[in-house]
Description:
Elements: H1 12-25, H2 88-93, H3 119-126, H4 130-145, H5 152-165
Helix pairs in contact: 4-5
Amino acid sequence: MVTLEMPMKVQPSDMVSILQFMENSYSHAFATVMPDFDEPKWVKLAGAKNDHGRRGKNESDSNSDGSGAGEVSVGSLGHPNMCRRPCVYVSTHRANCPKGSNCTYCHLRHPQRRTTFDKRQREFLRNLSDAEMLSVLLPFLKSKAMKMPQSAWKVVRLLEEKLQLAGGPQ
Length: 170
């Protein structure tokens, strides 16, 4: 397969907006408090059947976590960092989702709407080589790693090694 690389005119505002986007969107991924991954947290989905495939006598379809959605959905698993985007019914209409616990979108509260790149920025990012992408990301990641435990630097060092292998600046 032959790919043609076309030079792309890069505006200084592109890099500024990309860095601002990363600061706003991924700051939760570099929080100062490391999550506890030792104990898995299991969520009982409303309407889920017991081991025998039947609902128990006292089981109902209500959700006790107070999410306002009536029930937690499949898309809520991994909330807040690894879940799907918010369900339109729950987040905008404040109504029960017609798919209930089978909905593939998150039914729990999200702190703010995720920001996204516009079409030109997405195209710009797609056209970056690995070395270019890492040279843009590494300063941002280093500043976030300063506020984290020493173990976070393992990731930064791995990315620096990848940048060196890709032939980028050090």
